Amino acid sequence: MNPEAQTLSATTELRIGGNKLKIKLVIPAGEVPPESLLPTLHELSDLIVDGVEQKVHRQGVEISCKKGCGACCRQHVPVSPAEARLISAIVENTAEPARSELKERFEQAALRLKASGIMDHAMNYHRLSEAETGAMVKAYFDLGIACPFLDQESCSIHPFRPLICREYLVISSPDHCAKLEEEQIKRLKFPVSVADTFSGMDGVSQKGENKYVPLIMALDWTEKNGDEVKFRPGPKWVQSFFADLSGSEIPDPDSAR
Ligand code: SF4
Asked: Coil, strand, or helix at residue 14?
């Protein structure tokens, strides 16, 4: 334990989808919100994605996603409450004049969503039937709202982008993403989803429902709901996450060095 930074660290080896992944966990020791886990989960997600990318590359399959292609960044991007708060903090910590520019983009995007008549469905994504979800996703896409972080068709917060963005990689033509031709879009499949696992753990309401926030509503949502944060000791968040990811009990990370 580092007494000054009050963190615990441990290096662990995971077996995921036939790959051995070594990761250093740096965990806040005290009571923290779930977003404190995100730096570690970004790293874990990138390791899992890299492993699958290398595997398909060996099979002669190429990933179509490249820097400068933001074809998927006009789709509905549901993030967890913790990620919505992180997005809000990223914007708040951006230096001017970029901060005001970003806020303006979020505001304009939210106004367009509010005017579209699909706001209720977009905000309650987790409660929709499959048919309703399909209709909402298509209607959202037809609005053509670019993610506020999209700059020259590249992600301006690439190292901090949400987990769902990290796990969205395709092996089909980018043209299908640009037109949302769902039948033709071939997404890379991963043995586990860090995004889904984290959302399930972070966003479960008292009624047991998952909660998601459309990325473009992150600032608005955080302003209204930012205080509803659950604090737990960092090791407990880690324990819950890995138990959910593996579907089994893991050793208590309180023993982390
Ligand atoms: S956060 Fe980045 S990768 Fe995700 S939708 Fe926005 S621009 Fe695209």
From this structure: strand
Residue with CA nearest ligand 1 atom 4: 165
Higher-pLDDT residue of 245, 254: 245
* Interval between CA 195 and ligand 1 midpoint (Å): 14
Pocket lining: 149 vs ligand 1, CB cutoff 6 Å: yes
CA-157 nearest atom, ligand 1: 2
- 3: preceding bond cis by omega (within 30 degrees): no
Phi, psi (rounded to 5 degrees) for 27: -120, 130
Q: Are 33 and 228 in contact (CB under 8 A)?
A: no
How many other β-carbons are positioned within 10 Å of the β-carbon of residue 171? Answer: 15
Positive or negative torsion for Cα 169, 201, 84, 94: negative
DSSP code, position 232: E
Alpha carbons 210 and 207: distance in angstroms, whole number: 9
Closest residue by Cα to residue 76 from 212, 226, 220, 222? 212
Answer whether 165 contacts ligand 1 (Cβ < 6 A). yes
Under DSSP, the state recorded for 2 is B
The owner of tokens 């590359």 is: 57
Any atom of ligand 1 within 6 Å of the Cβ of 155: yes
73 lines ligand 1 (CB under 6 A): yes
Tokens coding 173: 């033509």
Quote the pLDDT of residue 89.
Answer: 97
pLDDT tens per residue across span 122-144: 988 888 899 999 999 999 999 99
Amino acid at site 98 = A
* CA 71 to ligand 1 centroid distance, Å: 10
- Annotate 224-252 with DSSP letters as a single string: HHTT----EEHHHHHHHHHHHHHTS----
